[in-house]
Amino acid sequence: MSAGMTTRYSLMDLPPSTIPRLREEDSGVMKITVTIYDEASYREAVISGVKGCFILQRGPSITWIDVQCLHRAETLDALGECYGIHQLVLEDILTDQRPKAEDYDKYLFVVLKALYLSAKTRKMTIDQVSIILGNNYVLSFREKDEDVFRLVRERLKTAKGRIRKMGADFLAYALIDSIVDRYFIVLESIGERFEDVEDEVVTVPDRSTLLDIYTLKREMLFLRQSVWPMREAVSVLERMDSPLIADNTKIYLRDVYDHTIQVIDNIETYRDMSASLLDTYLSSLSNKLNEIIKVLTVMSTVFIPMTFLTGLFGMNVAYMVKALEYNWAFPMILIMMLAIALTMLTYFKKRGWF
Amino acid sequence: MSAGMTTRYSLMDLPPSTIPRLREEDSGVMKITVTIYDEASYREAVISGVKGCFILQRGPSITWIDVQCLHRAETLDALGECYGIHQLVLEDILTDQRPKAEDYDKYLFVVLKALYLSAKTRKMTIDQVSIILGNNYVLSFREKDEDVFRLVRERLKTAKGRIRKMGADFLAYALIDSIVDRYFIVLESIGERFEDVEDEVVTVPDRSTLLDIYTLKREMLFLRQSVWPMREAVSVLERMDSPLIADNTKIYLRDVYDHTIQVIDNIETYRDMSASLLDTYLSSLSNKLNEIIKVLTVMSTVFIPMTFLTGLFGMNVAYMVKALEYNWAFPMILIMMLAIALTMLTYFKKRGWF
Amino acid sequence: MSAGMTTRYSLMDLPPSTIPRLREEDSGVMKITVTIYDEASYREAVISGVKGCFILQRGPSITWIDVQCLHRAETLDALGECYGIHQLVLEDILTDQRPKAEDYDKYLFVVLKALYLSAKTRKMTIDQVSIILGNNYVLSFREKDEDVFRLVRERLKTAKGRIRKMGADFLAYALIDSIVDRYFIVLESIGERFEDVEDEVVTVPDRSTLLDIYTLKREMLFLRQSVWPMREAVSVLERMDSPLIADNTKIYLRDVYDHTIQVIDNIETYRDMSASLLDTYLSSLSNKLNEIIKVLTVMSTVFIPMTFLTGLFGMNVAYMVKALEYNWAFPMILIMMLAIALTMLTYFKKRGWF
Amino acid sequence: MSAGMTTRYSLMDLPPSTIPRLREEDSGVMKITVTIYDEASYREAVISGVKGCFILQRGPSITWIDVQCLHRAETLDALGECYGIHQLVLEDILTDQRPKAEDYDKYLFVVLKALYLSAKTRKMTIDQVSIILGNNYVLSFREKDEDVFRLVRERLKTAKGRIRKMGADFLAYALIDSIVDRYFIVLESIGERFEDVEDEVVTVPDRSTLLDIYTLKREMLFLRQSVWPMREAVSVLERMDSPLIADNTKIYLRDVYDHTIQVIDNIETYRDMSASLLDTYLSSLSNKLNEIIKVLTVMSTVFIPMTFLTGLFGMNVAYMVKALEYNWAFPMILIMMLAIALTMLTYFKKRGWF
Amino acid sequence: MSAGMTTRYSLMDLPPSTIPRLREEDSGVMKITVTIYDEASYREAVISGVKGCFILQRGPSITWIDVQCLHRAETLDALGECYGIHQLVLEDILTDQRPKAEDYDKYLFVVLKALYLSAKTRKMTIDQVSIILGNNYVLSFREKDEDVFRLVRERLKTAKGRIRKMGADFLAYALIDSIVDRYFIVLESIGERFEDVEDEVVTVPDRSTLLDIYTLKREMLFLRQSVWPMREAVSVLERMDSPLIADNTKIYLRDVYDHTIQVIDNIETYRDMSASLLDTYLSSLSNKLNEIIKVLTVMSTVFIPMTFLTGLFGMNVAYMVKALEYNWAFPMILIMMLAIALTMLTYFKKRGWF
Fold first, then answer.
1. Quick one: D344 exposed, middle or buried, by C-beta within 10 A (0-12, 13-18, 19+)?
2. Which of A28, A101, C182, E68 shows the smallest number of beta carbons within 10 Å?
3. Phi, psi (degrees; rounded to nearest 5) at B341
4. Based on the domain organization, do A86 and A233 belong to the same domain?
5. B27: three-class secondary structure by DSSP
6. Which range, of A156-160, B240-244, D108-112, E190-194, averages the lowest pLDDT?
């Protein structure tokens, strides 16, 4: 459960401004993709570690360094020194952060949460993505062994759309947009799960339905926790007065902002629905209990007086035993019992029990 | 359930700035109505596609191009090129959007959700309506095969009211007003359904009542999701500092704004009521359970001691069998049983069970 | 239920700027009271319709035209033309509106909801009151056949207090104040009903209690819907920068504003209480169920083993029948049964069941 | 219940600007304490009514007139005339008001609610305290026969602390502070009651526990209603730009403001806790019900098949009667029954029922 | 329960501006640690009381006086006089306060709540920490016998990181940071407890689970009460326009602020989850009840008609007794009973009861 919540505690015994390391368990093999492109050319190289400092590109060509499965601190230290990144930023990249956008004058720092959805188990994984946008370069850091940026890279390679003609800010926008778009896929999947649970709740509510509802509720809470600050972060970026973001890119950022709002709207609606679902589930259970109890009550109250009569006429009372020796005694008793049963059933019918 | 929520996922694998296509299933036959009018004249033409560019009207006459069952992208591309519409706007028209109003200097872009209510099934359909207001022209795009603008068109034709004397901004206002007015019809219908459910909850709460309440709750949530941003959109329009909207039109927009607030008030009230209904339903069920259990308890506790007595006197115990041979034994036993039954019933009466 | 909610739908098929008519059913006989007064003189006339235009008073004397049971549109049209009222205002007067205050430069337009409480049935009626405050005149329109302004009129007639010495703005204030004061009477009555229901919930919760709670909850929701915007309307008036409201009148408006806040405080408190009441009701029912089930369980578990024993000794098993022929058999059996019953009862006593 | 809510209705039939009288029942014997002091001297006089006008003090000495059990209107009228108090203020003093602070240029007007806690019954009483702070004088009006200002008066008399060296604004601060401090005593008592109820809920939830929870919830709602506006009132005072409050007194007002926030925090926490308590109570009841039903079910299902067997072997079927004449029949039957009972008990054990 | 809530009541009978004493019971042995350091040197001394005034350090060296288990007022008075601290501040240090940050020109005053977690019992303790940041000095006061500042002191001693090179503001930041970091440890522990309870709720909900949920809920409420104002306090510090805080320290304060937001996010999520847990618990109980009742009903309704038959054939009715003398009577009866039992079981199977 605590996944995605408080991994910061590993940092407790360190001075506040040094760089704590991520736990090794989280990581696959680190993979660094360096992409250098301008409108005419495109070069890409995959390396496994950074020790010295890259030579900074001049002129219009843009450098994008994307680190997947980040866990070796030397790489981060090297990149940090090379691009002049503040120590607090490096620390933030390695520890669990709320989504946010910050202006450090020479570069902008954005933290977002990317979602991956396992196709089989329908389980969500959360990945923290840090993006640094500088003059003509973009650095991106990811923790998990999945590639949220695959499509952006393909578009860059094939020069599809305007992405190769625009600056580093448009690349950063494209990265953020691809993260936000992921949320719609997750929401789509959650929508389907809601439909499944809704059907169950009304027809056959059982223990597993309860677990499903509770799980949905909890996932909504955790999604919420990463989406609300994401909205704030995109909004801060859009309104930021930085020369690093061109005005015509801001229209695109507003579009991303609209998408985050749409995501929030849906999550809030689902959250409200999950609350209703739980209430409906309880009511549905009560309904079922009433039906069961009705069966018990009808059966009991119909047979209890009849059984009493059989007891009565089964007593070893001499006086009565004689009376029962008449031939008409048995049919009389049966008619009596039938009358009782019918009276009871009519009574229940009238009260609308069945 | 996911209708009206996240159809954006079809856009996932496309570059963020190209135009994705709507799914064909949503569409009937596309129908484009071109209306050109001024105070004196009125012309209307229905066409099925747009390839070249219309000749823009000059002087006071106003062009209104209304596209119903939008699904052929070439039409949109052609109109977009002709009127100089930004690619992001064209993308927004084709994908699911929150209601919003945006100022693109040369034109204003408004997205709203129109509601249709099926007369038979009382089911709601949501239609996304995009309106572009430019200098002397209005473009409107709708997805569903229903005509929310029928009355506006009639008034234009018959020159009823001041609509022919006013500019394109007043036409846009009339279109928005006709969309907002639809909500009152839907609310009226929901009000009736609430009354039905309220009666059921208190008198005969059953499984179908529960389903009705849950459905009402869910519909309220979805209505809310399209109304709150609609209020925001109208408010943005009203306060917008654009030469495209004349000051005397703003008074009318304020009126529309008041109507959206009224819609929101009603929806919020209904939402609160649906929550109360579910709680009341559960209480009503509990009430019913108590009554059923009371019947069971009264019957059981009255007969259980009496049946025990019949068992007691039915035992093959020689000593007792002799005692029961006296003639007064049977009446004595009956009196004993009657006394027990009366004691029990008096006890229940005192506790107010019936 | 829909009373006071969405009567606007009758307006659906009309152009947005014409004046729709109120449904006749709502109306009694229209009654127009024209009052002209200044510090020294007072004239009052009751008429039944307006066709031409009144001669406007000059100098210090103030005209107040109060229309009760408004339903003839010609009257409104005539007054509208005579005083130069905007068509949207006339439309608002005739249709269901949220309380609001608007500045139309030459006059101010205020819509409020007045409450009447039927002395017998304790039922609320909501009346829409529209007030137009111009230079030296006040127009007021009401729909129901009740007179919320009776006391104001009496004070005017008897020149009690300062009302005759002040301007038209003070008259408008007095009218608004008399509407707000009505809410306290209604709250008083609701307070009494709450006390009644509270007693029932804890002592004898039954189906009618549930209905009472639900009704209180719903009334709170509807009251809320007219009080919150009323607060806003009064606040707008108080802060309005209009020459029509003198500064020394604003202190009185602030006083009215304080009263609306007090009303809201009480309504919100009652709303929270009604939610608690429903929860408490459910708990009280559960309590009762537990008690009933306890009776059933104690009776059943005490007698079930004893009845089993009677069955056992009632079997036609030859071996046992012989044993039971001894004289001590019967007392032995009785002692056994007594022991079982006492054990059971002791067990329940220990668990605190009675 | 309506105590502290809507006593304003007695004002209904009066013109809005006259002074309504408090109901006599609320009042003990009115007691007016006049205190005149400066750094060097201190005089105190208790009188029972005011008719003429006091001679206003000159120079540095400060006059404090404190009215307890206010109910004679002449006194208020006399004081009002003497100090030039606005009629609306006099009306507010005599009617139920929300806590507030208002600036009337020549004096400040503050309304607060003081709480008294009955030592025996733990019941709260609410007292409305109105304070008027003018140049060199403070007027205070209270309705109940309790003295919230006792300690302030003692400090004045004994010249303890700096109170005699400071101005009238510091006296007003001391009065407000003594009112706010009362809330902590009440909160302390409520905290103890919560602890009591919490214990009951988990161990022996019964009807009286329910009543206690409901009462706590209601008291929280009413406390809230007087504390939130109190915070606002103190905040207004602190930020007020009036020459009547010296800058060094403002630090003390900020301290009082911090205390009101602390009170609000605690009340909100208690309010949330009371909601949890009710939910926990319901769950605790359900738990108990489950246990009772388990006992019933175990007993019934163990004995029902066994009793059936006794019935079976008690039938007068000739064929069977013969079979039962063998000596081993009885032990066989007993073994059969024992087997059934053990099977049942094992089954329930496995399901974890006991 | 009242721990950490309202200890202020001990102050009730004191004038508002004198210094009340902490209750002795809270305190261990007071321990004052005086640390004087600059980039090159470090001196530390532990003393047990302060009477005179320390000689203030000149130049770049920084004095940090840390008081643990504060309870002797003379010490505080002495320090207060020596550093010119306002009496209200001294009072605040000794009484229970909400977290806050205040600017007194010559020094800043910060109050925070530190959390300690008992390793064994998982119980939280709350400690009030007051920090005064002046020019070149920091005073810190703590009530409990735990050392939240241990790591800061070590880093100072070993000159690790930049702490010795920076000013007193950075020391204050380090102290605040170490307090905030504590919250993550507590959250981690709470996360684990949530996981435990979640498992129980779904599998074996019992009375102790209910107690756990309630306790978690209550702890969340109290944590919330100290975290929200802590966020505010840090935010005030960050935005404060005081020469005592250098600009490059503010980046670090923004980092602390981000951490407080993260803490709040987690607490709010846990709070929502605890509410869901209680609802889920109730549903889980209802589920279990349904299962128990099903067993009872199936057993009862299967055996009740069969037992009735045994009664019927056990009656002493002469006519019937003869009929039962035939050899086929017994098998016939058994077949009849089997048929009834099978019918019942089939019925329950169909309704999905097992």
1. buried
2. A28
3. -60, -45
4. yes
5. coil
6. A156-160
Q: How many domains does chain E have?
A: 2
Judge: E258–A98 Cβ closer than 8 Å, yes or no.
Answer: yes
- For residues C84 and A186, give the distance between their C-alpha atoms in angstroms, rounded to a whole number: 58
> Residues near A211 by Cβ (< 8 Å), separated by ≥ 6?
E202
Q: Which of B95, E268, E225 is nearest to A229 (CA)?
A: E268
pLDDT digits (tens, 9 = 90+) for A69-114: 887 677 888 888 888 999 889 988 988 889 999 999 899 999 999 9
Residues 184-243 of chain D whose Cβ lies under 8 A from any Cβ of chain C: 204, 206-207, 210-211, 213-214, 217-218, 221-222, 224-225, 229
Domain final residue, candidates D283, D303, D331: D283
Neighbours of chain A (3+ CB pairs under 8 A): B, E
Q: Report the residue count for chain C.
A: 354
Mean pLDDT of E177-206: 89
Chain-centre distance for alpha carbon D39: 38
Q: How far is E1 from chain A (nearest CA, A)?
A: 27
C207 in the same domain as C324: no
What does the pLDDT read at residue D245? Answer: 93
Average pLDDT estimate for C184-205: 88
pLDDT range class, residue C55, cuts 50, 70, 90: low
Order of strands, sheet of E31-37, starting from the edge strand that comes earlier in the sequence: E42-47, E31-37, E62-68, E137-142, E124-134, E107-117, E100-103
More confident residue, B274 or B317: B274
Q: Please report the pLDDT score of residue C52 as a whole number.
A: 60
pLDDT of residue C1: 36
Domain end residue (candidates: B267, B283, B299): B283
CB B315 within 8 A of CB C314: yes
My answer on whether D321 and D271 are in the same domain is no
Q: Does D353 touch chain E (CB under 8 A)?
A: yes
Is beta strand D137-142 parallel, antiparallel or unpaired with respect to D62-68?
Answer: parallel
Q: Residue C134 pLDDT more than 80?
A: yes
CATH number, domain containing residue E63: 3.30.460.20
- Write the Ramachandran bin of D348: left for phi over 0, alpha for psi from -120 to 50, otherwise beta: alpha
Average pLDDT over residues C148-169: 89
Q: Judge if B273 and B318 occupy the same domain.
A: no
Which of D222-226, E52-56, E222-226, E264-268 is least confident? E52-56
Tell me whether residues D16 and C252 touch, CB distance under 8 A.
Answer: yes
Element (H, E) at C45: strand C42-47
Cα–Cα dist C220/A28, whole Å = 59
Task: Decide if B342 is inside a domain.
Answer: yes
A190 to B13, B22, B23, C231: CA distances (angstroms) = 20, 22, 21, 41
Q: Which domain holds residue D41?
A: 7-283
CB contact under 8 A, A184 and B9: yes
Instruction: Give the closest-approach CA distance of D58 to chain C in angstroms.
Output: 31
Strand E62-68, strand E137-142: pairing: parallel
- Which pLDDT belongs to residue C24? 43
Who among A160, A258, A273 is closest to B100 (CB)? Answer: A258
Give the single-character DSSP code of D7.
Answer: G
Task: Name the one residue in this structure whose structure tokens are 């209180």.
Answer: C216
Flag whether pLDDT at D15 surpasses 90.
Answer: no
In a shared domain, residues E261 and E133: yes
Interface of A with B in 7-66 (CB under 8 A): none
User: Which chain D residues in 125-184 lie under 8 Å from chain C, judged by CB atoms?
Assistant: none
**Per-residue confidence band for C110, with pLDDT thresholds at 50, 70 and 90:** very high
pLDDT band at E23 (very low <50, low <70, confident <90, very high): very low
Query: In this complex, how many residue pairs, one in chain B and one in chain C, have their CB atoms less than 8 Å apart?
Result: 173
Residue of C nearest to B180 (CA): C12
Q: Is residue A76 part of a domain?
A: yes
